[in-house]
Amino acid sequence: MEKTTENISQSQSAHDDTESGHPEDNFTGATGVLFERAMAQTRMAVCLTDPNQPDNPIIFANRAFLMLTGYDHDEVIGKNCRFLQGPDTDEDSLNLIRKAIREEEVLVVEVLNYRKDGTKFWNALHLGPIYDGDTGELLYFFGSQWNVSDVHAARADEHQAKLLARELSHRMKNMFSVIGSIVSLTGRQEGAKQVTDKINGRIRALGNAHENALSSASAGPADISEIVTAVLSPYAAGSEDVFIMRGEKIGLSTSTISLVGLVLHELATNATKYGALSADEGKVTLDWREEDGHLILDWKETGGPKIDHVPEEAGVGSGIMSTLLKSARGELGLDWQEDGLKATLHMPVMS
């Protein structure tokens, strides 16, 4: 519990038959016996304080409370719970506790406390008033404590992972921007603007894929749906109906993200120039699934110009895709159907 001048207290002021004293000094008869047995057996740390005494001292603390804090029974009885506070205990949490006691409210709050040996622990404190059933008079404050240090550590790790992901995303975005600038400057100097535009398009696709993966994932593989959306959104031309996406959640490794992003970029670029995305009514349907550790992604174009012949030679983009996919044990099959291109990507999920 905490460093407030009003806090809930624990154990009681008698000697000890149980680990925490004789609760029947305050709770008499059968009720006292049941209370004593229940409090002795529960694994939840529990204490009672008496707000009718000066400084709201602890009058009862069970065994679990003593084990949690490291104090002996005689060291806690008669003290206000503020002895559990220390230099890093948050004042805002203490103000909430003070307010709850002052206004006789129920409160659940997490507060940093200290054990007898000085070690810190995060305490999930639940406190509330106990009234006389006949007169309505305030008799005690009840406090239960639960060590949630592991929960706080997990939250901190997740927060750090997200901060790292954002920083990596920012740096990667800058890196792709620098690479693009170098390519553009070189292209202007060498008179090869068309080539540099294509290269920059591929760089942007890779940047979009990785930036989205890093900014959205706290840890672990990135979901393919996020990658698909990030890479293809520039080609939607403001229409949400251009791409129809269907598939299960599949986590992709970093290397797989690069290849998927590049393949989607090349397919979308081709569709914009010659296929479904070059027509007002054109659409692209994407379906993906995982089979035996492999990603299967189907790309199907409809509503574009009629295809009356199959390209005789693969373009530069197709050559790049084929080379990279082969090195990753993947492949891209192209089926030039009359109503549009159908492509199937097949590669390991964790290449």
From TrEMBL:
Residues 1-13 have a biased composition (Polar residues). This is histidine kinase. It comes from Parvularcula marina. Residues 55-104 form the PAS domain. Residues 1-29 are annotated as: Disordered. The lineage of its organism: Bacteria, Pseudomonadati, Pseudomonadota, Alphaproteobacteria, Parvularculales. Its EC number is 2.7.13.3. NCBIfam families: PRK13559.1, sensory_box. It holds the Pfam family PAS_9. It catalyses: ATP + protein L-histidine = ADP + protein N-phospho-L-histidine. Keywords: ATP-binding, Kinase, Nucleotide-binding, Phosphoprotein, Transferase. Residues 14-25 have a biased composition (Basic and acidic residues). One of its GO terms (molecular function) is ATP binding.
